[in-house]
């Protein structure tokens, strides 16, 4: 009797153990095969986006959609509430492929208006989305953010003085969204909407439904206009068209904005390639008494204090990489200066500088098209000095002639390389090595610029420790680092971040690892 009971107990224990192992294995298998989705970054399965106004309606805005997935991804792009543009495109992409869509230019917002020109992108696995607001000699690009990382609090940015209007656009993600816009403090702000005028520091309130678009335009500087909502929204910001002194060439400016809860305190700035004019940098604060210090590799430096709904603009040198650190989270924007010299083709562009805390470990991207052929395309990068030799472009080491400039008071270095038109990947040999990357392209009277990608973890919130999930893109141990431990069998027990604890915040294993090498079971 006792022997039979003991045998039954062993059988039950075996079944429990087997079930636990099977569950762990299936969970791990789904991670390795890329079916666990939702880490907060620019890759996603649903995007709600749009296009702000450009100076004319001659060319078509474009979408570029690609993926890092080696399996076939089914994608659907539509404008279900603005059917007159005839946008209803179904297609597939896989790693190394890019699908380009030209959209009727009527999809662009026009003036200050509430319309329904939102674009919906859905996919059955994660994709990467870039938009280009293309017109002849007036173009800029933006990196699309999926709906799972959007927020409910934003600050806008524009360049001023402007040739044509400053502008921003809100896109509704859910029905019945209450949106509040407090306009910036510039004295020339004049916005006519719904039968009345609004001026600096005044508030516009409205209710938006899914795929509604609300664009605001004015010749006053809209920088630091404050937008809040009770549900997630998408926000774009920039200029309809502008020159940036001392040059006179003009371009549209646009970027999709990071919500305030994803802002950071540490930034690195690589100057735009092949320029001698410097770069305009705007710093926007969401809290009072925000102290900012900028130090550059050639000795240029400055420090200042900005307050909530305030901003500061500086021009950083073209031959220096710079480090920015703030006492409270900020947004940093690079605005490319207009073409000054004929041997330096360029035009204005607006580039969000992600915080170092939001750098990622790999990027998949595609270069856009110039109005008359191809851009001169570049990748600008920031990486730890000790890890620069592990960077790979399309699986290959960076060219031996690549120049690196160390970033002051950090262990990072920065530089840029020229790339051919097409789809590319940038990765590091180590999945716990994070680095920043930007895409920049220039030709006569036309320029674009955008981050290649970034994490979108809510690092500007109070951090609450959580149990690690492999590759979840979350700071599980609240140490200011994200997915900093390589939790493989070969690396078992190693404290990768030197904090005295091992395997407390696990990154996604590298693609080359076998199931055996990444499978870990702790009985």
Describe this structure in words.
The structure is a single chain. The protein is 7% helix and 40% strand. The protein folds into 2 domains: 2-32 and 462-518, no CATH class; 44-451, no CATH class. The chain has helices at residues 2-32, 515-518, and strands at 44-49, 62-66, 73-78, 88-93, 98-102, 113-115, 119-132, 141-143, 151-155, 166-172, 177-182, 190-193, 196-199, 203-208, 213-218, 226-243, 250-256, 264-269, 279-285, 290-296, 301-306, 311-316, 322-336, 350-353, 362-366, 376-384, 391-393, 396-397, 405-406, 412-419, 423-428, 436-443, 446-451. The chain is globular and about 65 Å long. The protein is mostly beta strands and 523 residues long.
Topology (elements, then pairings):
Blueprint: H1 2-32, E1 44-49, E2 62-66, E3 73-78, E4 88-93, E5 98-102, E6 113-115, E7 119-132, E8 141-143, E9 151-155, E10 166-172, E11 177-182, E12 190-193, E13 196-199, E14 203-208, E15 213-218, E16 226-243, E17 250-256, E18 264-269, E19 279-285, E20 290-296, E21 301-306, E22 311-316, E23 322-336, E24 350-353, E25 362-366, E26 376-384, E27 391-393, E28 396-397, E29 405-406, E30 412-419, E31 423-428, E32 436-443, E33 446-451, H2 515-518
Antiparallel strand pairs: 1-7, 2-5, 2-7, 3-4, 3-7, 6-15, 7-8, 9-16, 10-15, 10-16, 11-14, 11-16, 12-13, 16-17, 18-23, 19-22, 19-23, 20-21, 20-23, 23-24, 25-31, 26-30, 26-32, 27-28, 27-31, 29-30, 32-33
